[in-house]
Prior knowledge:
The protein has 136 residues and is of the alpha+beta class. Helices cover 24% and strands 38% of the residues. The chain folds into two domains: 2-74, 2-Layer Sandwich (Alpha-Beta Plaits), CATH 3.30.70.260; 78-135, Alpha-Beta Plaits.
Amino acid sequence: xxxxxxxxxxxxxxxxxxxxxxxxxxxxxxxxxxxxxxxxxxxxxxxxxxxxxxxxxxxxxxxxxxxxxxxxxxxxxxxxxxxxxxxxxxxxxxxxxxxxxxxxxxxxxxxxxxxxxxxxxxxxxxxxxxxxxxxx
Length: 136
């Protein structure tokens, strides 16, 4: 049985320069489609991708990632912004790896484009007003 899942992978500093995705392809027979990537050399990596293969290969690949220290988050979640709490400070704009936030007009209102969002959760941590929430 074949599966295809959209996930976000967070690579800690020691793994940023390792051939993790290569091993998923070569050793676990998985195919991938990169949706978004953000890598800061010698610091951290964030990779949103669609991973496809047989259920058994997918499960083994996910186990490999977990054991290697890669944090995995399914993209089956949504990010919601509480407009009443948002102060339009812009902290989310600078942190978002997919540019789901942008500054609009002279008033400098922050707009959120949910279509670009990969639900990585970085904006939740960055928001001082706690206006960003994750729903399942």
